[in-house]
Amino acid sequence: MSESLIFISKNGDETEPNKKEAFRYMGYKSSEKNDVIEELYSDCLAELKKAASYKAVYREVPISLEAGSVDFGFCKIENANLYKNLSGCSSAVIFAATLGAGADRLIMRYSKISPAEGMICDCIASSAIEVWCDEVNEKAVGEKTAKPRFSPGYGGVSLTYQKDILAFLDAERKLGITLNDSMMMSPKKSVTAFIGIKG
Amino acid sequence: MNIRDLLGKQRLYFDGGMGTLLQSAGLKAGELPEMWNLTHAEDVKKIHLDYFNAGSNVVTTNTFGANSLKFDNLEEIIAAAVKNAKDAAKQCGREDCFVAFDVGPLGKMLEPLGDMSFERAVEIFSQSISLGAKHGADLIIIETMNDSYETKAAVIAAKESCDLPIFVSNVFDENKKLMTGADPKAMIAMLEGLRVDAIGMNCSLGPKQMLSVAEEYMKYSSLPVIVQPNAGMPRKENGKTVFDVGAEEFSDYAVQMAEIGVSVLGGCCGTTPEYIKKVVEKTKDIPYKAPESKYITMVSSYTHAVEIGRVPVLIGERINPTGKAKFKQALRDKNIAYIINEGVRQQEKGVHILDVNVGLPEIDEDEMLVTATKELQSVLDLPLQLDSVKASSLQKAMRIYNGKPLINSVNGKQESMDAILPLVKKYGGTLIALTIDENGIPDTAEGRCEIAEKIVNECKKYGIEKKDIIVDPLAMTVSSDDQSGKVTLESVRLIKQKLGLKTSLGVSNISFGLPDRENINALFTALAFQMGLDCAIMNPYSAAMMRSYHTYLALSGNDKNCLGYIDYAQKNKTETVTVTADNKVQEQSDVSSLQRAIIKGIKSDAYSQAKLSLAEKDALCVINDEIVPALDTVGKQFEEKKMYLPSLLMSAEAASKAFEAVKEAMPEGKSESKGKIILATVKGDIHDIGKNIVKTLLENYGYDVIDLGKDVEPETVLERAKTENIKLVGLSALMTTTTEAMAETVRLINENLPATKTVVGGAVLTKEFAEMIGASHYAKDAMETVRYAEDIFC
Is B114 exposed, middle or buried (0-12, 13-18, 19+ CB in 10 A)? Predict the structure, then answer.
């Protein structure tokens, strides 16, 4: 296991958000489409590709599991769901990923001019960060067998652990991610997570 | 000895990393390094001393995160930190040893992206910096800043808290940008404007990537440049953290930095005294290049700088209420969306800078200019020209402006210079200087040139250089004086030739009172450019003006291979095609109705259809027979899940356009409101999309919405509900962590205003939760909020 801190980045036009997911976020349940919305989707997507700047850092660490709690070295979390998720793992990839402040600004801009476009852009960006996380996930895991990624906020794991993850990965400097008092990340389209590695 | 005696006269060396050295001395993960100033003073002192002995002239105190957000015993920590560094300097014994008080980022994102206000950031930085100065630091280093706005807050704090030299260092990523978007030129423009002592970069990914940013700094900066790279990326080797760029490779890059003229060298994460020793050894015999003064006029936004003096620059004039009834009404209504729209449209037309004038006698201009500036810079990346006759309005807007603004304007009257020049000295900015003084506007070019000279001389007293003065020799209409065009053009030429100053004109004034003004304006502008005019404040919606501008660039050798012109011409052609397409849509809609336009969500159609309907029946009939039924149809379709939210919103926006047409047709002040509703996203929550959707729908249904925004204190909601006598308050929360704040807000309202109803919504809420916190109603979506409002008010 290499414990290097890995940084990867991509320009906004190098990743394609998942259109089906984006429409699902907008509330669409069937595939029926509407020309007006399709056109807005293309416009927003083109702008998002200019505004977004995909960045991520990750690092693999050995973990130890003991009586319902997981010790990552830099923090220890007592939570049954996380324990279950990571059971059978001897290490975990700790990661943080973001679309950058440009995406936040674009969503803000659309929202101020047209709530519909603001919403569409927000949904595209939500899909884009998921696609980016999947990509980083795949890269970090490589050939190894991994568990589904687990983020603070899931299954009763407190959001305050975001603080430990961001500090451990030096994510404020490397990615520009900060937390507010309510433990919300800025840029908003950012994710932190643990990925259990089997073996 | 003062560091100002050496800076810019010889190469100076800073220290390297602190964190990694503390870790090898035993600092544990999660432990706050700043505490070590107290608990392990000897270890900290030894690190400083090792750096001095390696050849550093300046060591930075161990205070990167020392601010009141993290520490209650701030003074104790800072006093110890400065003492540790000063003791090391004394022990080293060399005369050229200095202590820099280290200021790192706060770890909070500033508004509008985050929730910390600019003034709060200034306050926190000021606390730390005054303590650093009080305990004897020799200079301030503001470093590892990855946001231009936070950088500005720290610099203002430093200027207001002490007289020490200020060094500023930013973090650029692999795209040569800060995390929030600024490029090197933008930072250089802003920081030179703020009159700091040295500027540069640190941290980031490694010395190799930094070289190209350093080259950019050397090209544009007149100030000494500081470069402190990381030793690459960290990794674990045999349980120890190591970095992938060694001292040898690192110092080779330092040689290249010294050769291109970097004045101050040092290191950041992962570098050690060994690195600095090698850097000093390898660079000490390279001849020092003193920074050169560059005569480049720049203004900047939070992303980029606009250079004035090469290719003519267009300044959009449309954000200005003069002669615009709709704009005046928008200002009275505090309709910020209107102003933002004007900004977006002008940017689409291709202007480089936006003039912002919101002066109206009946409004509070100080407040409005600040609001407009904040709102525009939150969503538009063009530099702004702050335009006011009130110095107090300019002062407040310049302070919170995220970049280096153009200032419109100062003139030759002593009173004007006394009021405006100190502001530029403190906050930075490039001045528009009008050639008018106590005796009016001179009739001749020579007379106007003299006033310009007078302003230049007065500026010297404040250290404002000629590059930051752009003279506007005032275009007066040719309709009242047929020599006016000639004199103005001659003034442009003379001011440039005789004084070497840049020039600007409000070109539209030239045609005042004449028919078909575009003809005059377009040619006048081209002639002025030919005389050397650098900026034109103009109307970008005028096709003739834009045509003239692009043609001028092509003819004056400012458009390589005429690509700009070709692009403009092609786009213009596409516009003609679009117009035909629009006509087709309208033809179709001739057979359709206003209702259909709203249901389909076609905004332009809804407006024109409403106009047609209004020609046949009165405004109230159009609302009640067409707009409201159409909205009800989409509302029902949405509730029956036959239509989805984006389409519902588009219909709502189309309906707003129809309302706009109706309002225009109504005599003033006759539009009726069904009632006032307050909306807010609760304290701690910065998600406002859901709230904005509800707002749009409520406005559509004829309610006056008081939008308090996001992250709103419970007390603010209560206060406003009290003063405005509000019957219904809508609250939104999207995070489980902020539902507490929602409960508190509802509790305050229930206790103090029992007659006021509350409706709550948001992703994490449930009906049960709403009942538990005592909210009057839970709305699962925007439509339900509307239905509830209809119950309350009708």
Answer: buried
- pTM of model > 0.95: no
Nearest neighbour of A108 by CB, restricted to B112, B174, B601: B112
Count the domains in chain B: 4
Q: Is residue B587, in this structure, part of any structural domain at all? A: no
Domain CATH number, residue B150 = 3.20.20.330
- Looking at the fold, whether B704 and B653 belong to one and the same domain comes out as no
Residues B238 and B335 both lie in one domain: no
Instruction: Pull the structure tokens for residue B224.
Output: 């000494």
Based on the domain organization, do B384 and B270 belong to the same domain?
A: no
Choose among A74, A104, A115: nearest Cβ to B30: A74
Question: What is the set of domains in chain A, with CATH numbers?
Answer: 6-198 (3.40.109.40)
Contact B210, B201 (CB under 8 A): yes
B582 occurs within a structural domain:
no
Contacts of B653 in chain A (CB under 8 A): 114-116
Q: Which residues of B touch A100 (CB under 8 A)?
A: 179
Smallest Cβ–Cβ distance between B692 and the set A118, A180, A182 belongs to A118
The CATH number covering residue B692 comes to 3.40.50.280
The mean pLDDT of B705-721, rounded to a whole number, is 91
Give pLDDT tens digits for B714-773. Answer: 999 999 999 989 999 999 987 777 788 999 999 999 999 999 999 999 877 888 889 999
Closest approach of chain A CAs to the CA of B341, in angstroms?
Answer: 7
Same domain, B618 and B693: no
pLDDT digits (tens, 9 = 90+) for B123-174: 999 999 999 999 999 999 999 999 999 999 999 999 999 999 999 999 998 8
Q: What is the pLDDT of residue B588?
A: 43
The answer, yes or no, to whether ipTM is higher than 0.90 is no
Q: Chain B residues with CB inside 8 Å of A168's CB?
A: 29
B430-434/B264-265 β-pairing: unpaired
Alpha carbons within 13 angstroms on the beta-carbon side of residue B171 total 25
* Best CA proximity match to B106, nearest among B95, B90, B122, B92: B122
Determine, yes or no, domain membership for B163: yes
For an interface test with B, the pick among A7, A14, A105, A121 (most B C-beta atoms closer than 10 Å) comes out as A105
Max Cα distance, chain A (Å): 55
B721 vs chain A: nearest CA distance in angstroms?
24
Beta strand B198-203 with B240-243 is unpaired
Residue B785 belongs to what domain range?
676-793
A contacts of B684 (beta carbons < 8 Å):
180-182, 184
